[in-house]
Amino acid sequence: MALTRAFLKGLGLTDDQMSAIIEAHTDTVDGIKKDRDKYKADAEKLPDVQKELDDLKAGSDDWKDKYEKEHKAFDDYKKDVSDKETKAKIKAAYRKLLKDANVGENHHDSILKVTDFSAMKLNEDGTLADSDKLNEAIKKDWSGFIASKDTRGAGPETPPGGKKPESLGRAAQLANQYHNGLFGKSKEE
Prior knowledge:
Oligomer: single chain
Structural class: mainly alpha
């Protein structure tokens, strides 16, 4: 049953009342038509949205894998930075041990390049653990680079200018033999 002017007139309404009812009814119907058109447009988009949703569900593990890879890479990066900082602190502490052991400072970089720091650990105060053992190892392994700070003259067993035959170098021995061959042995020998 439709709401028409004839129907409203049959109910015994006046023209003003009929116009007010028709106007209100038209506003209501127009609002319903707008909602219908909007829902129809949304319904037409539904297959595309469903396809997109299915694609996202199918690829749902991709984001998880990507997240795990990125998270692992970040953790590895943090570990590398931490290891580099720790290694730098260990190198600085080892350099201090070298200096304390009187190893020449111009040899420190060379020694640091060939030293294995993987077994060394730092104490909480920033010193190396087992520094006594490391100090002994430095004195043993790098003794050729340890500079002596005292200056002493030659001892009485090897006076300056005094020559012992066993202390002559090979060139001096050959020169001595040549001299002896030409002129014979001297009385000093």
